[in-house]
Amino acid sequence: PRGGQPHPDEGHPPPLETVPVSWKGCRESPGGPAESPAGEEAQGEDSPTAAQLDVLRLRSSSMEIREKGSEFLKEELHKAQKELQLKDEECERLSKVREQLEQELEELTASLFEEAHRMVREANMKQAASEKQLKEARGKIDMLQAEVTALKTLVLTSTPASPNRELHPQLLSPTKAGPRKGHLRHKSTSSALCPAMCPTAGHPLTPDKEGKEVDTTLFAEFQAWRESPTLDKTCPFLERVYREDVGPCLDFTMQELSALVRAAVEDNTLTIEPVASQTLPAVTVAAVECGSTNTCALSGLARACRHRIRLGDSESHYYISPSSRARITAVCNFFTYIRYIQQGLVRQEVEPMFWEITRLRKEMSLAKLGFFPQEA
């Protein structure tokens, strides 16, 4: 040091760059002279510097390791935080899903309870309606059984050839039946039956004294129809009856009304009402158009009309003459008997049924020729 001034770093080890020669350089000097005592002294002086260098290196390595460890830990921490954030987001999403599922479950439970209550209520209503229908059906069955019994009694005790007048009060004369009030009504199936006695030149017909012979063709057609009774007009038996008897018998002058009458007879919806002579009703509009009590609505002829007909549920009435009534009732009697056969109410052999059918066809033929019973 110059000027006797103390060195500013006195008391501290000199920095690395101030060392003139490192100990490595001394050892690595190739071909150098043998170490002198002065070199040993210099080596002794350099020893503290090498130790300090090692300490510094250790400190530097420790710092590097510490920094690297700190960076590694920071990275791990950052990764852990990211994973934790993702898990929090997943937990939040699952929590929303759970809440949504719980809400849907509650709504589904409520709707199921409502549906169950509705089904129970409908089942109770249907059960009540079914019980009511069952009760009504049983009542109808009882009524139908009573009607079947009555019809069987009617068939067994009354036929178109010999009607039971107690079962058909409309056949009684006015003096025996008592005074009539208003209009007596009866359907075509229970219409006034034409008696077996029809005037022929002033003498009644006596079927018992007439000769009879079975027509084999007609009998074969009837037998075929009897095996499977039907009201189909296309079968040979009914096709012949329609062509030979029903059609001509219901073929009146007023063609349009004749067609309506024929359809009503086939459907069993024709009603014949006697008109009380002492109190003739006011003529309706429909009756004025088709006839009055002095004009037959079917033939158009001026005749005293003691009966009127009604077609189905219509409120229109048509006044008819005794001849027209006889023709209609003859056809109605035929249809009534074949309906009885179809329903199994006629308990007879085939031949007696055939002769009854033949007799009814005869009545239709006589009626269409103008023969009818005189009313009392």
TrEMBL record:
GDP/GTP exchange factor Sec2 N-terminal domain residues: 69-152
A single BP term in Gene Ontology: protein transport
Comp. bias (Basic residues): 178-188
Listed name of the protein: RAB3A interacting protein like 1
Region feature Disordered, mapped onto this chain: 1-51, 160-189
Keyword Transport: yes
PANTHER family in UniProt: GUANINE NUCLEOTIDE EXCHANGE FACTOR FOR RAB-3A, RABIN3-RELATED
Coiled-coil region(s): 70-154
Family: Belongs to the SEC2 family.
Gene: RAB3IL1
One GO MF term: guanyl-nucleotide exchange factor activity
Species: Canis lupus familiaris (Dog)
Gene3D superfamilies: 1.20.5.4880
